[in-house]
Amino acid sequence: MEGEPVNVNEFQELARQALPKIYYDYYSGGAEDEYTLKQNVEAFQGITIRPRILVDVSRIDLSTTVLGYQISVPILIAPSAKHKWAHPEGEVATARAAAILSYRSTCTIEEVASSCNAVRFFQCYVYKRRDISANLLQRAERCGYKAIVLTVDSPRLGRREKDIKNKMVNPQLKNFEGLISTRVSTDDGSNIEAFDANTAFDASLSWKDIGWLRSITNLPVLLKGVLTHEDGG
Ligand SMILES: Cc1cc2nc3c(=O)[nH]c(=O)nc-3n(C[C@H](O)[C@H](O)[C@H](O)COP(=O)(O)O)c2cc1C
Question: What GO molecular function annotations does the UniProt record carry, in alphabetical order (predicted)?
C-alpha cells in the first residue's frame, strides 16, 4: 500500500499485516462458510444515497439523540469482544468514540466508565449463572451506563470456522474475575465456542426472562439482534 491508509479496506489490510493470524481471523471472520458475512457486505454495497441538490450545506450538524441523550454523530459502535488483542488500550480507546461495551470486553466496565464522559450502553448476554449477569448489570448501572443492550440472536455462538481451525483461545476476561473462569482449554476446535456452549450461555432464555432482567436493573433494556418483523411486532 502506498502512503497513509485512506479507507476502511486499507486499515483492514494493515491490521492483517500487523496482527497474529489467530486474532485477525477472529475479528474478520464469520460463521458457516462466511455466507452471511458476504451477503451483508453485498447488501451494504447495494444501498444508494439519493443526494438532494441545491441545499445549503455550509453548516452541518449531525448531532442527534439516542434514548434522549445527545450524541454528536448518529454512529454507535456495535458491541464486539476482546479489543485488547488489537491494541493495548482496548475498549477504553473505542469508548472514547462511541460504543456499546461488550459483555466480553478486555477492559473492565469500570475502566471504560472512568476513561471519558461519553454516553455509553452496556451489552449483555444471560449466562446460565444468573448471578453473573446480575453482577455485571449492577456494576454497569453503578458506573453510569445509560442502557442495557441484551443480545438475543445468539443462544449459541455461530460456528466460526476460522476460530475452530485456529484453535482460538479463550482468555480470562477481567470483568469475570472472581466470578467464573472464562479460560477454557480443549483440544477440540475453538475454545470460545467450548466456553459458550458448555459453560456460559443460557440456551433456555426466552421472552419471560426479559421480565427478570428488567426486575434487576433500573436502566432501559434494548434487544439487540431482532431479525424478523414477527419478533419486532
Ligand atoms: C469480532 C467480533 C466480536 C463481536 N462480539 C460481540 C459481542 O461481544 N456481543 C455482541 O452482542 N455482539 C458481538 N458481535 C456482533 C456485532 O455486534 C454485530 O452484531 C455483528 O458484527 C453484525 O454487524 P456488522 O454486519 O456491522 O458486522 C461481534 C462481532 C465481531 C465481528
Answer: FMN binding; oxidoreductase activity
